[in-house]
Amino acid sequence: MLNKIDVLDKGYVRLVDVMGSDLTVVNAAKASYAKESKELTEKDIKLIKFLAREDHTSPFRHAFLQFEVYAPLMVARQWWKYIVGSDHTMDAWNESSRRYITEEPNFHVPAFNEWRSKPENSKQGSGDIVKFELGEEATYRLFKTIEDAESNYEWAIEKGICAEQARLFLPAYGMYVRWYWSTSLQGVCHFLNQRLEHDAQKEIQQYAKAVIELAKERFPVSIDELNK
């Protein structure tokens, strides 16, 4: 069964652990009537569809998924607001910290043909791919920025400056960070409903596509019904 999908140039999403299944959702809903199903039936599938259609979401909060994500900081900080703004108290986020580790930094660098123009009628988002010459120049400049920053970071570490301050030399938004995200099935679908939209940032859309592919193998009915 698929449990890891590569994303962007160096990133990935890995499904670490799962608690529950579509049957968990069914039995949580049936608890009100002191009933329980031993296996998923057509009647149970109809129940899941009803719960999703009528926005009866509490049964979907009895199933949990845990992901490991490796993504640029600009993706991580968009993702993080689903924890800050969550009313599901069991949501959790633990991120690697350069206060404690000094592993070699990785950075997301768009290829020449991946740089996007600013949108014509919006203050956020992006438009079409820019001309090749401009993309080539942008990639070159970003590589040079990273090269200079890494040199300064290594200098600071070698001179004995603490890791938590040495990291100030590293470019932030493109730097890859790693975290564990644990959340309910409803929390996953709330994230997916917003980050699979066409107007979401392209990079986080790619991560959302990986999340839905991994989650759908474990919760095929619920994922379909909550993400219509």
Automatic annotation (TrEMBL):
It comes from the Bacteria. Pfam families: Thy1 (PF02511). Its EC number is 2.1.1.148. PROSITE patterns: THYX (PS51331). InterPro entries: Thymidylate_synthase_ThyX, Thymidylate_synthase_ThyX_sf. This is FAD-dependent thymidylate synthase. It comes from Paenibacillus polymyxa.
